Amino acid sequence: MIGDLDISGVFLPTLLVLMGITYVLYLLVHGLLTRLHFYRPVWHRALFNVALYAVLLGAVDSLSRYLMT
């Protein structure tokens, strides 16, 4: 991750911005999985959602590092 992002004079931590982007992506993936009835065989839906968010956050972080170099 890089340092802080300057948005109109307001400094935001990079992780906060990445988490916001990941949340929007998570909502799209979650909606798709719900429509496909993917959650039926899932044992603990809340744990699965946290793991899904963590995987997406790692992917967004890796992609941002790749794009910034």
Secondary structure blueprint with pairings:
Blueprint: E1 4-7, E2 10-13, H1 14-35, H2 45-68
Antiparallel strand pairs: 1-2
Gap between N and C termini, in Å?
11 Å
Low-pLDDT parts are none
Secondary-structure element sequence?
EEHH
Strand content: 5-15%
**Strand segment tally:** 2
Major pleated sheet: 2 strands, antiparallel
Provide the descriptors you would attach to this structure in a database record.
single chain; mainly alpha; two-stranded antiparallel ribbon; elongated
Would you kindly provide a written description of the structure presented here, covering whatever features stand out?
This protein has helices spanning 14-35, 45-68, and strands spanning 4-7, 10-13. The protein has one domain. Helix 1 (14-35) packs across helix 2 (45-68). It has two helices and two strands, in the order ββαα. It is mainly alpha-helical. It is elongated. 67% of the residues lie in helices and 12% in strands.
Question: What is the gist of this entry?
Answer:
The protein is mostly helical. Helices cover 67% and strands 12% of the residues.
